[in-house]
Each structure stands twice: as C-alpha cells, then as structure tokens.
Design goal:
With 122 residues, the chain is mainly alpha-helical. The chain has 5 helices and 3 strands. The longest helix is centred in the last third of the chain and has 31 residues. The N and C termini lie far apart (43 Å).
Length: 122
C-alpha cells in the first residue's frame, strides 16, 4: 500500500478518498497556495519562511508527497552549497483554480460557520 493512501474495503480504487487523503492534511494546501503565489520556483528555506509554523521535517515530508503525486516539481542543482527549488507542475497548476474557489468559499462563509458552531454547542 502506498503511504497515506486510503483504501476502503468496499471501494479500494476510489479516487476521491485517495486524493483527499493526500491534499486534506494540515500542510499540503498551504504549500500549494504558497507556491502559487510566487512567479518563480521557491527554495526550501523560502517555503519555511512563508509557512513559519511548519517544521522542516513536516515540510520535507509534505513536499515529497506532493512531488509523488506530480503536483510539485523538485529541481536539485549540482552546486556547492546545494540548491533545491520547488514549483508547481502542470497538474499542480490545474488544481489551483479549484483551490482558489475553496479559499473564496471559505472566506465568504467562515464567519457564519463559526457563529453557527457557537450556537450549535449551546
């Protein structure tokens, strides 16, 4: 089994469960949004600065998983000191409009959702 792949006994090839298990984690969408906001590839340390609450270990893991799904491209340059850059792939770019719609919806609805949560918990 591929790491972080959800395999449902009734629907083992369900694309929705599989994709959402990967992008639905705490960091993947933030990484994709951060890469989208930059016109040029980003170095690892720049991603760390842009997402200050992610640990280096989690960022490394997230980038590897996004690379495995062909959403992010990693380019290593044979230099001293070494230089590695990350950017969205064509598949990653194709996901951005959907992600931006989710962000817009969240911004439009978050206040009402938070209010409803408070009312619900009373």
């Amino acid at each position: 089994m591929i790491r972080n792949q959800v395999v449902d006994p009734l629907f083992p090839k369900c694309p929705i469960r599989n994709v959402l298990s990967r992008i639905g984690d705490r960091w993947s969408l933030l990484v994709l949004l951060t890469l989208q906001d930059n016109e040029h590839p980003m170095r690892f340390r720049d991603l760390c600065k842009a997402i200050p609450d992610v640990s280096q270990k989690m960022l490394t893991s997230t980038l590897r998983e996004l690379e495995a799904d062909d959403l992010v491209k990693r380019t290593a340059y044979p230099e001293v000191p070494s230089r590695v850059e990350y950017e969205l792939t064509e598949r990653g770019q194709s996901f951005i409009p959907l992600l931006n719609q989710l962000v817009d919806w969240s911004l439009e609805n978050m206040e009402a959702i938070v209010k409803h949560r408070k009312e619900y918990s009373l």
